[in-house]
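1st attempt posting a full record on here, be nice pls
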Amino acid sequence: MTSILTNLGAIAALQTLRSVADNLTEAQQQASSGLRVSAASDNAAYWSISTTMRSDNLAISAVSDALGLGAAKIDTAYAGTEAIVDVLAEFKAKLVAAKEQGVDRAKIQEELTQLNAQAESIVESASFSGQNLLKTKSNLPLLDEGPMTTSVVSSFVRDANNGVQVKSMAIDLKQSSMLNEVGGGGILQKQIHSVGDIGGFRGTGINSIAHQGHESYNFTGGVTMAPGDSITFTLTVDAGIYSAGNTYNLTIDKAAIDAALGTADGKINTAPQLRTVLQSIFVANSVPATAMEQMFTTVGSTTQFEIGSLETAGHFGSSIDISNVVSTLSGPYPAGFAMGLENAPADKHDNMYPKASMTFTSPFTVSVLAEAYFEVQVGPGAMTTYTINRGVVDAALGTSDGYIGSAADLAAVISQASIGSNLMAVANGNAITFSADQTVYPEAGNRAARVYVGNVQSNPPYAPDFDLAEVDITQNLRTLDQYIKGVDHMEKMAISSASRLGALQTRIEMQADFAEKLADSIDSGIGRLVDADMNEVSTRLKALQTQQQIAVQSLSIANSNSETLMQLFR
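the predicted structure (as tokens):
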């Protein structure tokens, strides 16, 4: 049916043309923009995700910039710290050189002064963008200061709940600071609450010992005893300040010699033979001593003989004493000749009580926040830890400032802290001698109470009680060993700080690398969501252009029907 009112072919062709035109417009838009989703109307979900991720990528780019700034700060601080380590190593070497006899300490002090000035210059110079990680400003000592942290931006994070956070790496300025203005406490400065080497007490490891009483004599020659000849003497064993000991009147004669040596001529020719004779006499008379003692000599010695206590006399003492030597030798012997028994001992150790000493080095102060700990064991007592704090110091010295200024002060403080341990700490000049309380443990020699004092520690742990700038080897404020130990501690702390900064450098480099890769990954992810497949778009565009041409031609054909109809009415 042909109608002049309704051109169905034209309508169908026009609808097709409109559809093709719309699709062609969309394809042309994708081809020109390269995006499959360029507006929320294209795909609301993908557009929302891609827009958000593009924003996040801008934030990650800012993080990368911040990481670069942070890396520069850390690099600067690390370079300064590494230079400080070198200065301290040189400083310590100069101190060691100063221990050599005959060196000019004044000249070495000039070098130390310059090295300290160099260290201070390095600290001042280690600044980037106005921030110096090696120098702090606090009115309090760093140990007393609260958290002192700065940070470097490390990442931008969006969590599962769509919340965002900016993460950062913390840098503890209390660990990196070389110099803290006003309050002190930096790596190159004293620690206000440090007790230093505790006046020389730190590092003490006293484990005293003693042994039996004994004495040696020089053998002055042999004898030949005839019947009626003799040497008599008094031997006192284990006499001491707490006991009288046992006394024995002994005789050396021809019968005793022949019985001991298995001879018949009454001769003693050597020191070993005299030992044998004395030993036989001791056994025969139940004397708690031995002539075979070897603390000073050997049994085979030809020039000496030695007598020692067996410590079985039942007395507290541990000693040997020969007296009242009487010789009735006939023949060509000097008056009183007794083979050396008549002379004073060559070496003598009697009534030994275990003792050990330490040397007081320099005064120090126990602050209200400082404590020192040490272990003590006396005799059979248990190993016990004792504490020195401000209260103990002031109780021992009758003060209120915690100051310990001498060996006598430290001995009094140790005694106060270790009440009940039976430890005696006695000062003599700069020395402090440790021993057991003899009123509790009067036994001497091998039976005497041993004394252990050691494992001395402190809280806070050891730190120098002087600034690097205060080192002066021309004065006697501290010993060279104290200075060396303190500077070595500073060097260790600086090395630890450099290690931490180096670890941060590595982490920042890794994070910066990750940020770049993360940005690339996000770009790739966004592309997968919204980028157009240009191969597909171009092919579809060709197809749509062809369809458009066909639709236009179809419309032209449909419209040409009216021309045919007009011919019917001619």
